[in-house]
Each structure stands twice: as structure tokens, then as C-alpha cells.
Design brief:
Layout: E1 4-9, E2 12-14, E3 17-19, E4 22-42, E5 48-56, E6 63-73, E7 76-85, E8 103-110, E9 114-122, H1 124-131, H2 141-144, E10 153-164, E11 167-174, E12 187-196, E13 199-209, E14 215-226, E15 230-241, E16 266-267, E17 270-271, E18 276-290, E19 293-308, E20 311-325, E21 330-343, E22 361-372
Antiparallel strand pairs: 1-4, 2-3, 4-5, 4-6, 4-22, 6-7, 7-8, 8-9, 9-10, 10-11, 11-12, 12-13, 13-14, 14-15, 15-18, 16-17, 18-19, 19-20, 20-21, 21-22
């Protein structure tokens, strides 16, 4: 992928000393937009209806950004990355309207000691699932809903990562920033990933606390293997939320705002009195049919205990993508999906995939064009 880059090389005397640091700043981005059709969408009256509309792509979120680094010597560099999301159909900002809502961080990286980043970032849970997902987490509910069990991005985050041979570690601490306590609104997470040849396997764990120290616990195990022309992916997610667990409104500055975490306070039949537990399994594959054609098929199933007090449900989706590469930067693809709800999940206000206007299923399809710069 070609990038438009500004590179500054300095070999001049600065003040009373000399400097020979290499610095670079890169402008980059991606636009993924298409026409989508979906059944059982909620109409103005609340009844189910089909919808044809222009939509962001099913594969990747739209973004533009600036990233840079400065060589500080001794194998250490200062780094930063500012990335903004947007909707090409309207020109509006994504991610709650935050100026750099996809992420905004500054950090230090060293080949031996690892990387530390400070700012708004993807959660370690997102990074982990993206490693074991055939499309690295998609951008439409049928192919990205699983990540709302863990949270997408977190404000006020310190993240450390490093690798020792085949083993890689990532640790996240998102401070709550709430007056009067250090744990309220905080999130702590880690992952460990082992890689050898075409094989990867890993473990992940997370704890988040809301304003009243109610807990959300999550864990995951993932595996993938590259056979050459095909790669198989699979992961399992366990997610548990205390009764009453809640996230603050976006842009409120409150506990766990701007994270896309689902809550467990109000249900379709009133206040929640029991812990909600999600057990999700995913299986998918990528197949390189030709050097220019990539085929993807995947499915997800989530059994949900205590969707509402004493009632369970389930969520499932399957999708397929046929992607044709026009160049190294540009591709066009067709995506189809089918999503299903069962039991109490049909009317669940906390459903990570949404509801289908009282129906138990929805079918979607889209054709999209994606280009990178």
C-alpha cells in the first residue's frame, strides 16, 4: 500500500549541540462505501420493513490519520498516531463525533523493551479478537457484533506491548477518571499470543468496573492456522456482567463512556436482577481462490443466560464475502449475511447485534468499493 508521506531528515546544529534524529510523518487513510439492503429493519412506526441505503462497508471502517515517529537513538523512538473516522455518504464524523475518535495516542517504542502508548486506543480485547477473526472485526452488525461484548475503544488508556521470540504480550489499563475513586470506570486487560509458522494461539482476560464498581468480566481463547491458500480462524468469548452494570452516555465524561460496551441494567421486562452471561463461539476461513480473489465465510453463535431475569436467549449470524482486488490499494466486494435471534434475545434492549423490529431474523447484502491511501 502506497502512502503519502512527508519525511524530514535533520543533520544540523541545534542550539549548542548537534542532532541527527530521523523523523517522519505520514498521512494515510481508507474509504469503504457501498449500497446495502437489509430486511426487518424498524420503520418509523416500529414495524419491520426492508431498507435499501448507502452504507459504510462491511469490511472496514472509514478513516484518515496522521502517524509519526522520531528516532531518539539507542533503539528508541517517539511515536504518535491520530486517526479520525467518518461516513463518506454524509461527511459526518463517526465515533460519537470525537475529533480523533478511532484513536489518538503518543508513546515510546524500543526493540528490546517494547512499546508504551498513552491516549484513546483500541482495547486489548479488540486487538485480540482481530488477530483471530477472518476480517479482523468487520464494520456492520452481522460481522462485528461480538466485539461489543468486550468494548471497542477506550479513552484514558495506557497500553504496553512487547514480544519475546514467539510470545507476544499486551496489557491495557484504562483509568476511570472519576472523582473520589481510582477503580470506578476503569478497565484492565491483557492478552498472550503464541506464534510459530502459520499457527497462532492466544488467551485474553478483562475486567471493567462501572460507576458503582459493578463488574464486567471477560475472557477469550483464539486459534488460527494458515494452510497456504486458506486460513482457518476460531475463538471463544466468555463475558459476564453484574446486574445493573451500566456505561455512561457517550461524550459525557462518565464511567466507561465512548467504549461501545453493552450494559446489563434495564431489560425488556424491567430492571435486571441477575448477572448476564454470554458464551460465544466463532469459526471462519479465508480462501485465496486466485491472486485477485479472496473468499471469506464465517459464523458466530452466542448463548445468553439471563437476558432478562430467569430468561435466556441466543444470537447467531453467518456471512460471506467475495473480494476482488483491482490493485494493491483498491478492491470491490460483495457481502451477504443472515442473522438470527432466539428466546429473550428477540426483544433484548442490550443485544449487541440489535433487534429486528420484533422479528427473529434479518438478511442483508451489499456491494462496496474500498480504496486506501
Amino acid at each position: 500500500m502506497k502512502k503519502f508521506a512527508f519525511t524530514i531528515a535533520t543533520a544540523a546544529t541545534v542550539c549548542c549541540g548537534t542532532a541527527s534524529a530521523q523523523s517522519s510523518v505520514t498521512l494515510y487513510g481508507l474509504i469503504d462505501e457501498g449500497i446495502r439492503f437489509a430486511t426487518n429493519q424498524s420503520s418509523a412506526s416500529g414495524s419491520p420493513a426492508s431498507k435499501l441505503y448507502m452504507s459504510e462497508g462491511a469490511g472496514t471502517g472509514n478513516r484518515w490519520g496522521l502517524r509519526g515517529s522520531e528516532d531518539l537513538g539507542g533503539g528508541t523512538a517517539a511515536i504518535f498516531d491520530l486517526q479520525a473516522g467518518f461516513n463518506p455518504a454524509t461527511g459526518l464524523s463517526d465515533q460519537q463525533g470525537q475529533q480523533f475518535g478511532r484513536y489518538a495516542f503518543v508513546g515510546l517504542t524500543n526493540k528490546t523493551y517494547g512499546t508504551v502508548k498513552l491516549g484513546r486506543q483500541y482495547g486489548t480485547g479488540f486487538d485480540f479478537i482481530a488477530t483471530f477473526d477472518p476480517i479482523s472485526v468487520g464494520n456492520q452488525n452481522p460481522d462485528d457484533w461480538e466485539i461489543f461484548l468486550l468494548g471497542v475503544r477506550f479513552d484514558n488508556t495506557v497500553q504496553y506491548s512487547n514480544a519475546w521470540g514467539p510470545v507476544a504480550l499486551e496489557v491495557q489499563r484504562s483509568v476511570g477518571g472519576q472523582v473520589g475513586g481510582v477503580s470506578e470506570g476503569s478497565t484492565t486487560a491483557f492478552d498472550l499470543i503464541y506464534s510459530t509458522g502459520g499457527f497462532k494461539a492466544g488467551l485474553f482476560g478483562q475486567n471493567a468496573k462501572d460507576l458503582h464498581k459493578r463488574n464486567m468480566y471477560a475472557g477469550s481463547a483464539g486459534v488460527r492456522y494458515n494452510f497456504g491458500l486458506a486460513t482457518v480462524y476460531s475463538y471463544y468469548i466468555y463475558s459476564r456482567r453484574d446486574a445493573g452494570f451500566v456505561t455512561a452516555a457517550n461524550n459525557s465524561g462518565g464511567s466507561l463512556a465512548n467504549t461501545n460496551l453493552i450494559g446489563n441494567a434495564t431489560t425488556a421486562v424491567g430492571a435486571q436482577t441477575k448477572a448476564r452471561v454470554d458464551n460465544l463461539v466463532q469459526l471462519g476461513t479465508n480462501i485465496s481462490a486466485t491472486p485477485s480473489i479472496l473468499l471469506t465465510v464465517a459464523g458466530l453463535y452466542d448463548h445468553v443466560s439471563n437476558v432478562s431475569p430467569g430468561r435466556s436467549g441466543h444470537i447467531a449470524s453467518v456471512y460471506g464475502i467475495a473480494d476482488y482486488l483491482l490493485s494493491k490499494r483498491t478492491d470491490v466486494y460483495v457481502e451477504v449475511d443472515h442473522s438470527m435471534l432466539g428466546g429473550a434475545s428477540i426483544t433484548d434492549p442490550n443485544s449487541p447485534i440489535g433487534t429486528f423490529a420484533g422479528k427473529n431474523n434479518s438478511t442483508g447484502a451489499m456491494v462496496a468499493l474500498r480504496t486506501r491511501f
